[in-house]
Automatic annotation (TrEMBL):
TM ranges: 68-88
Major localization listed first in the record, in broad terms: endoplasmic reticulum
Membrane topology label: Multi-pass membrane protein
Any one Pfam family match given in the protein's UniProt record, by short name: Ribophorin_II_C
GO biological process: protein N-linked glycosylation
Cellular component GO terms, alphabetical: oligosaccharyltransferase complex
Native organism taxonomy: Eukaryota, Metazoa, Ecdysozoa, Nematoda, Chromadorea
Domain Ribophorin II C-terminal: 50-117
Name assigned to this protein: Dolichyl-diphosphooligosaccharide--protein glycosyltransferase subunit 2
Localization per record: Endoplasmic reticulum membrane
Keywords from the UniProt entry: Endoplasmic reticulum, Membrane, Signal, Transmembrane, Transmembrane helix
């Protein structure tokens, strides 16, 4: 059924330009003719991001008024600042020492913030359904 041939030879046929090609891996001369196009005037990235977040639907009205909101965001800012200082001058062990304190503070503040959010949104279902009928976009305002 199957024939097996022992003496098989394989031949590769290259293009004629490759047979006599000399490959050089030396540095080429620099090209100084490239000019980057000037970008048209654009608004700052802060304004673009602000309007994009408004378009997406960021809503600060749904955030509870609590000191834990500020504490949690201050902790996150502290962590990012610590990463920046680590990049500049700290070593890993010094960074971990500082991160343990800032991280514990941020963890506790985040836990309290989540509790405040649950308390903020603990509205019974009938009141929520009534509020959604009045406001179909789903933004419930506290009294």
């Amino acid at each position: 059924l199957f024939e097996y041939k022992k003496n098989v030879s394989v031949a590769f046929n290259f293009h004629p330009w490759m047979e006599n090609a000399i490959f050089s891996y030396a540095d080429s001369a620099a090209i100084h003719l490239h000019i980057y196009l000037q970008l048209p005037y654009s608004f700052s990235s802060f304004l673009k991001n602000l309007f994009q977040w408004l378009r997406v639907g960021i809503n600060f009205g749904n955030m509870p008024v609590s000191p834990w909101v500020i504490a949690f965001h201050a902790g996150l800012t502290g962590i990012f600042g610590l990463y920046f200082v680590f990049w500049l001058r700290l070593n890993m062990f010094e960074t971990l020492k500082y991160l343990s304190g800032i991280g514990a503070f941020t963890f506790i503040a985040g836990n309290r913030l989540l509790r405040a959010i649950v308390t903020f949104w603990s509205v019974d279902k009938a009141e929520r359904a009534f509020a959604l009928k009045l406001n179909p976009h789903g933004k419930i305002r506290r009294r």
